Every structure is written in C-alpha cells, then in structure tokens.
Amino acid sequence: MAERKTHVQTTINNEPIDFLCEPRQSLLECLRDVIGLTGTKEGCNDGNCGACTVNMDGRVVTSCLVLGVEAEGASIETIEGVADGSNLHPLQVSFLENAALQCGICTPGFIISAKALLEQNSDPSEHEIRFWLANNLCRCTGYDKIVRAVQDAAKKMQTA
Amino acid sequence: MKWIDFEKPNTIDEAIKLLVDSNGLAKPLAGGTDLIVQLRVGDPRVNASQVIDVKGIPELNELSYSPESGLTIGAAVELYKIYNDDNVKKYYPAIIDSASLIGGTQIQGRASLGGNLCNAAPSGDGIPNLIAHGAIVTLAGPNGTRKAKVEDICIGPRKTSIDSDELLLSINLPINPSGFGASYLRFIPRNEMDIAVAAAGVSVTIESGKFTNARISLASVAPTPIFVKEAGDSLVGKAVSPEAIQEAAILAKNAASPISDMRGTAEYRKHLCEVLTQRALDIAINRAQEN
Question: Please, which residues have CB within 8 angstroms of residue A97's CB and are 6 or more apart in sequence?
Fold first, then answer.
C-alpha cells in the first residue's frame, strides 16, 4: 500500500483542528511536531513517566502511547488549554506558590493529571493524590511539594 | 518506528477480513499500552505492518452482567471502566484487585484486560485472576467463533494460542456460586507502577466450612501465567484450616519455575509463591465467608 498521510479531524482545547500525520506517529509527535503545541513534553516515550499526559475524551492518557490517527473525532485537552487567557488555573498558581516544580519538564503532565483528579474528586486525600499521580514522575521535587500544591489548589477551587 | 498502516473497522467481519488479508502482519490495537511500545522499539516478536484499531467494534466494548451468563468483558474495555463498574464491584470484587493495579491512571484509561491477555507477558497482572475465576474467552476467526479457557491462551512469553487471523472478542466470567471468594496479590518492592516479582490469583468456594472448589494461578514465576490445578484440587473436600491452606501453597510453590533476574532470584520467587498463595487464599476465604 502506498505510504500516505492520514487526515485527522479532532478538537484540541475546544478548537477544531485538522492535521495530516503518518499512522505511525504518536499523538505526542503530532501535538509537538505537526500542530506546534510544544507544551506537552516527551520524557520516556514508553508510557512510564507521564510527562506527555493529555486529557482525551475525559480520561488522562500518555500521548506517547496513543497514535495520532486515534485522535479522529476525539476531544483533547493539553496544557495550553488549562489557563483562561492570562489567568492561570488554580493548579498552575498553586504549583508556582508551592514551588512544586524545578526543571519543569514533568509539570504539564502533572497539571493535566491533577486537573482530571480534582474534576472528579474535589477533596482528595493525600493517598488518593499520590496514587492518582503515580504515573507522573518527577526527578526534582521529591513529590511532597507537588502533593501540597494539589491539596492547596483543591482548597482554592472549593472556596472559589 | 517503521511504517504501519492503520485501519479502524466497525464490525467483527471487517476486522477478520483485514486480519486474513494481512497474512499475519496485522495486529489488533486496543489500548496500545503494550503494542505501541513494542512497535516503536521494533520488538522482533511483533512483526506488524498494519494495526487494526478494534475500539470501534461494539462487541469489544461490551461490559455487561446477567444472572444467567455472568460477566462479559469486551476485549477492548478499558481497565477504569472495569473497576468502576457496579456489577464488578458487587459480584467480582477480586477483578478490581488486578484491574486497578495495572499501570497508573493514564495506562488504566487505555489498557484492557483483553489486551493484557493477548500480550501474554509472564507477569500479566490481569491473567491469574481470570484463570482463578474460570474465565472463558470468545474468539472470532474466518471460520466463525470459538471459545477457549483463559489458561489455554498463553503458551510462551508473548505467545498465545490465538491465530494471527483470529480476534479476541470478549472474556466471560461465570456466575459465582454462593460461598465463592477470590483475590489477587502480587509482590512488588514499591507501592504501585511496577512489574510483579511474583503474583497469585486464587478462588475458593466454601460450603459448610469445607472447600468445594478452588483454583490457583501464579504469574511472573514461569514463561506464562500458570494454572496450578493440583494446588486448588488439594483443597477440595477439606475443612478450611491453616494446614490445608499451607499444603496448597506448597503445591503452588512447587509448580513455579521462575528465572533469576534483577527483580528477584528464582529461590526468592519460589518462596514468594508460597507466601502469596497463602495470603491470597486467606483473603479469598474471608470474601467467601461474607458471600
């Protein structure tokens, strides 16, 4: 069969997006290299580190383990869609205020994962936060600051 | 990754035709959490020039329970749907033991028990529990459908008895009798997100204080997850007692043929088989007594 690109119609951060990709390209590659949304990071590229986490149809997934062609008809949220214009999301504010990042490579994945958690559980326990975020690795912070930032954001969002 | 073609059929017949036409060079894609990695690294055991996304086929997305036919889990049903399902929680709580510890949140949003079975890893966390429940799979092929026991699917590391032109449709767990309990335990050196050093999935049925049925399965201690029939059978007819449990656990240990690697030595893994079988039986017995 001739090697040709596939036309994919999808929705990213509430905007309809069309793109062309090779079936072997991951959603991560499509986001970064085809569409130009480089906020989503590549870490391990085999599903372990969670740096490339995006929300796809309401579930967090590692975009390195999704083919770009699977995005057809899907609704995807990336880190670029989390802030409301120049107003940061409470999670982003809490990550800054709690120094929950150093190098920052893991941060977009953590924010997307934590946002999905808080959307289904507005008051998670520390245990629930740690288990939910177990698929997101951070080699800088030691996680405590990240957990505190998520707890802090949960409080902010409850009183908002 | 080398070039692959992508197809997304909407029916079983279309999928089977694609599998047949590919002459063994197509792989069904469900969650992709194993397959996409294998294609990317060029795993020689996965020789595919085409992936067939089977998530558009309704039968593979079925998750249903009936008091006549038990629990049907479509081959592509994601893990999070399985462990959040009310019928699974009520009638098959042990399935949550395994479905909720494969990977982390992101993996559980994509991965399926069907995919876990077809991937046939020696450490496949989803598999011992299915064997312990006596689960039966339905496969479709060019000559129609056939059924097979889960313990007959994995025949070697990453090798299954599923032909290259066959498609796993669903996994059926029979109705559990009263007095049934099951559990799955694995040992990993951390709290989550790891591959088992050893694991045991067990089920028991207890009537009037005696075992009337028991099934014991192990993972990570042989080339495939194994069904240790003699270990479960040793319990049948006996009163529930620590001695009977230990005897079954020793039979399970004796059936294990682990390798030594960075996760543990063969000797350690054999020891774990006994301990995990004992503890998994204790949990299953507690659940049975609540049933």
Answer: A149, A152
**A110 at the B interface (CB within 8 A)?**
no
Q: Kindly state whether A143 is in contact with chain B, defined as any CB-CB distance less than 8 angstroms.
A: no
Q: Which residues of A touch B105 (CB under 8 A)?
A: 60, 113, 116-117, 131-135
Which CATH architecture fits A6-81?
A: Roll (3.10)
> What pLDDT score does A1 carry?
52
Helices of type H across chain B: 12-21, 35-41, 79-83, 86-91, 93-99, 105-108, 113-119, 127-132, 229-233, 242-255, 266-290
* Angle formed at CA A76 by CA A47 and CA B87, multiple of 5 degrees: 70
Asked if A4 and B32 touch (Cβ cutoff 8 Å), the reply is no
The structure tokens listed for B5 are 């073609």
Q: Please give the single-letter amino acid code of residue A92.
A: Q
**Cβ separation A26–B36 shorter than 8 A:** yes
Considering the domain A90-159, what is its CATH architecture? Orthogonal Bundle (1.10)
pLDDT digits (tens, 9 = 90+) for B110-136: 999 999 999 999 999 999 999 999 999
